[in-house]
Amino acid sequence: MEEVLHAPHHEEHPSGLMRWVTTTNHKDIGTLYLWFSLSMFLFAGSLAMLIRAELFQPGLQLVNPAVFNQLTAMHGLIMIFGAIMPAFVGFANWQVPLMIGAPDMAFPRLNNWSFWLLPVAATLLLSSFFAPGGAMAAGWTMYPPLFIQGGISYDMTILAIHILGLSSIMGAINIIVTILNLRAPGMTLMKMPLFVWTWLITAYLLVAVMPVLASVITMLLTDRHFGTHFFNAGGGGDPVMFQHIFWFFGHPEVYIMILPAFGIVSTIIPTFARKKLFGYTSMVWAVASIAFLSFIVWAHHMFTTGMPVAGQLFFMYSTMLIAIPTGVKVFNWVATLWRGSLTFETPMLFAIAVVCLFTIGGFSGVVLALVPVDIQLQDTYYVVAHFHYVLFSGAAMSIMGGIYYWLPKWTGHLYDETLGKWHFWLTAIAFNVTFFPMHFLGLAGMPRRIPDYALQFADFNMISSLGAFVLGLAQLLFMYTVIKCIRGGQPAGDKPWDGADSLEWTLSSPPPYHSFNTPPRVD
Amino acid sequence: MGQRSHWPRYRGVALLAGVAAGPVAAEYAINLAPPATAIARQIYDLHTMVLWICFGIFLVVFLPMFYAIWRHRKSLGHQAHRFHEHPMLEMAWTAAPAVILVVMAIPTTKVVLAMKDTAASDISIKVTGRQWKWEYEYLGQDLKFISSSATPQAQIDNQAAKGEHYLLEVDRPLVVPTGQKVRLVFTAEDVIHSWWVPALGVKQDAVPGFIRDAWFTIDTPGTYRGQCAELCGVGHGFMPIVVEAVPPAQYAAWMTEQKTQLAAAKSSAEKEFALAELVAQGEKVYVANCAACHQASGAGIPGTFPALDGSPVVTGPPAAHLERVFKGRAGTAMQPFGKQLSDLEIAAVISYERNSWHNKTGDGVQPSVVAALRASLGK
Amino acid sequence: MSEHASGYYVPPPSHWPIVGSFALLGLASGFILLLAKVAAGPWIMALGAGLLIFMLIGWFGSVIRENQAGLLEGKVDSSFRWGMVWFIFSEVMFFAGFFGALFYARNIAVPWLAQAQLLWPGYAGTWPTAGPALTDPFTPMAAWGIPAINTLILLSSGATVTWAHWGMKLERRWQLKAGLILTIALGLLFLSLQIHEYGEAAFTIRTGIYGATFFMLTGFHGLHVTLGAIMLSVITGRVFAGHFNSRHHFGFEAVAWYWHFVDVVWLMLFVFVYWL
User: Fold this and answer.
1) Are A447 and A379 in contact (CB under 8 A)?
2) Among all residues of chain B, which has the CA nearest to that of A137?
């Protein structure tokens, strides 16, 4: 039995600001990631409020097209890299060591740097709004040649993404090594909670594709300033080449953003159904298949670029294939609920909503996978609907559910269940009011990334904007509920959820600063 | 079959039933555009089929879930059962989606192949995307023109009531004959654009430096509208497409008329114009081509698009001003307008800029000077 | 809490990461100011770079001290091994992006440009090419001169570092030292020949897609060789300081693995950039 070794005087960790700046503790670092993520979520959400305010009616009322393009591009970039990914890393930091009975992450100091790189990137991104010409406005997808035309904020964006990539790669290596190396005795891979599996596989995806993003944005930088012709046809390059390399990163990236969500849902549903997760083995295989397939579908983002028909068919078939393991997961969740003993606390409400609404997003994905239909829907609001269904009601709502689920463990207090339920219902309903009409807008012919639109799109845009305003306000309620719980509430006890069964629930709430100094024995 | 039913305010609730009820019952604003080509019809039908299948799967999966939520509650005293796997069921629900996907893939593949078949076309038109307008060139016909948005800025700025085809109207539509296979050849001048007309079922990215193609055959005469479908900068939402499909005889007549007008414009460009006339024409050119960046006030957008009002280039020697407009400025959004505008248009817009706002140079440029520059550059 | 000889070491709170963050903030801001032609740019970059070096020395210094104190054995050692493997994998994927660009350009972009005769009449699209608009002829880099010699040099350096490794395992310090010094010397020889070749090149990074892919790939490779040579020097210094023994020498192994990775990338470069 190995015990954890700490340097002498380690028990006296610094307090105040220095505690948070120098910490090597996975719980502290998890907390830092989650606060960072919440602040970025609120900022990027405000950008969305401005977008929906401009789109409330036809005509330009609030912002000019140049500013509007900055809003849409930065909303996407900050939500993906500032809100969703750091939130999931925050969960990984808090939960993975606890769930596998490890004393901390494999590289605790590196873990600190992975977090403290984020404010550097955020500084570059947020201050880019004040650079001459304003923030980056070429979409989060940054396609050249448009990207080459931009001002200095585009270079700030490239550097910020490099720093974010460095943070993610180091974090992913940390997670892989922690899971492979630091599991408690007796915890074989097939005994790990599914949340840990989803993060192991997500980490592999990160290590594989974030460097590819780094290489392609370096090519953007050299095309912009050093005279290279990677994306310039006159020099033998090709703007579409950027798209290929970018989406080779970009498609696994969306699975990076959803697999941990699957892990959270797979934790919450068995707890509140009081029933083991149905089909654990097939769930693991499904996650692995999704990850593998995610490398060979990238060009479904590019069906209109003019690729040969063989390419269109290949990517159509591979994209349709991904529906199978994804469907298997949904069936397994439903089978877990079936004949369970269900209660509907806030985490469970979120988890069930995720399953339903993410599936709708999955259906619109299957529609988009069909090349002829995609020709009509590519670059329209149908795509915007699709990815908000999978990313908001998939990823973001599972994050919210996970927060409610684990806040009692992290803080020792129960959150206010009434407020939680209010937050849930406002969010779920407002979300659908905001994004369901966007399917129709896309079908009816409204392109995306436009600040103004033709008159036949007016009604649904107004409905969508109203939904968005309610959705935004509801997140203020979320923040209030979370802060209220941190400051106090009914004592949670070790295991407030009687159906929970992973290792963190064997510890006190909150857990000791150092947990599992002696690894538990797992049968 | 079907009729225009009276939709309640929240049409979304009745969407699936309404859409699936058939194309005629579906309003434009909810479903895909009424198809005007055979391909568009096939796409429409594919989408309807997939939608029904998805709806069916949704019911099959979520009815049990909602039943469980309703009946298998702890508050009703329901005890949790102990099963957590069932190999036969799991294999079945892995195989069934696979079969459904194959069923979807077969008709879809046929349409994919049909969409790519651009051979044996009757006419070919080269489409060039620019920031922020489309240029059409009828290959083999010596006819080329630019098609820009015709929606007045006043409507966009909410100073005037919006017209019926707000943001979907152009000054010169693309005219094509019905019943003939039209092949479009796409490229772009500056950034990636995308030419999209929903009713025709055609969307194709226009990539600078590369050639892409697509085709359509329109059955019924009519006006079909579309928009740019790839973010291309500030004017992305303001570069619409209008296709006018007319019977072949009418198309031939239109072609002849265009060529006549072109010849007339060429000869008029050789004469000398009064400054006032140039300035007046120049204002129209400015609004259509320059105001998007440099603004109607000539003030530009600081840090992004330079001001023309008080600009040293605009108020300095006319030759340098002409060079800038004609050749553009590499590495920026300032395009070489020599490629897009006629000699008369360039002469007019330069004269306008030099004598508007606070600029009072009192001079201008004649179309013949522009023609000389064009000849010297070999363009 | 007791201390065991074998336990998982969890480092105490550390200020090195935040120093690194400030360093990168300085490097990034300085670079941005440099691009914006602000005079302070290069100075701020230098400050950031200096701070980064300070951090690397400090942080690795801590790790070395912890290692010498025997704190990093058992599972921590295997953590470091796994970590290094996955770090090298991420580096492979970084190069994969650029190799992907080369592959796409040669096999797809350039042939399609040659087919677009409507836009580029007369463009043949044979490799190497600077594209249809940059038609001035240029001489590409020949494979069977200095690049071939460089291949032999790097392959030999892979052999010398392996020879050094055997010296480590057989407790033959002289062999270990000689092997390391030879490896570094070969690495530096490689670099100087590359720099010479860069100077002699009849084209630049601006020479169309050929120049772009050539200099990007070989440039980043050269950067990695430089980093590898620095790391080898640090290890050599540690060897002379008496660190490492035949059973515990992960620092050496990690750098040796890195060196082999750099060697393999060169082989790919030689075949796909220089030769074919």
Assistant:
1) yes
2) B233
Neighbouring CB atoms inside 10 A of B358's CB total 8
Q: What does pTM read for this prediction?
A: 0.93
A10 has catalytic annotation: no
Helix H segments across A274-339? 280-293, 309-337
Instruction: Judge contact between A70 and A139, C-beta under 8 A.
Output: no
Whether residue B157 sits in one domain with residue B229: yes
Average pLDDT, chain A: 96
Mutation target for C interface from A180, A230, A295, A305: give the one with most C CBs within 10 A.
A230
Q: Do A444 and B33 touch (CB under 8 A)?
A: yes
B103 & B170 share domain = no
CA distance A271 to A403: 15
Average pLDDT over every residue of A140-155? 97
> Who contacts B255 (Cβ-Cβ below 8 Å, separation ≥6)?
B138, B141, B143
* For residue B15, pLDDT beyond 80: no
Q: What is the pLDDT confidence band of residue B333, given thresholds at 50, 70 and 90? A: confident
User: Is B21 a residue whose pLDDT tops 60?
Assistant: no
What's the CATH number where B83 sits?
1.10.287.90
pLDDT at residue number B264: 84
Among B295, B170, B162, smallest CA distance to A64 is for B295
User: What's the total number of domains in chain B?
Assistant: 3
Other CB atoms within a 10 A radius of the CB of residue C66 amount to 15
Q: How distant is the Cα of B17 from the closest Cα of chain A, in angstroms? A: 14
Tens of pLDDT along A312-340?
A: 999 999 999 999 999 999 999 999 999 99
Q: Does residue A494 carry a catalytic annotation?
A: no
Q: Which is the catalytic residue, given A168, A393, A465, A515?
A: A168
What domains can you pick out in chain A, each with its CATH number? Answer: 26-506 (1.20.210.10)
Angle at A306 between CA A303 and CA A307, to 5 degrees: 75
Which residue among A28, A155, A223, A253 is the active-site one? A253
Cis peptide bond N-terminal to B132, omega within 30 = yes
Residue B189 domain boundaries: 123-266
B161 lies in the same domain as B257: yes
Q: Which residue has the tokens 């998890």?
A: A30
* Same-domain status, B136 and B53: no
Which residues is B242 bridged to in the sheet? B225
Indicate left, alpha or beta for C40 from its phi (over 0: left) and psi (-120 to 50: alpha). Answer: alpha
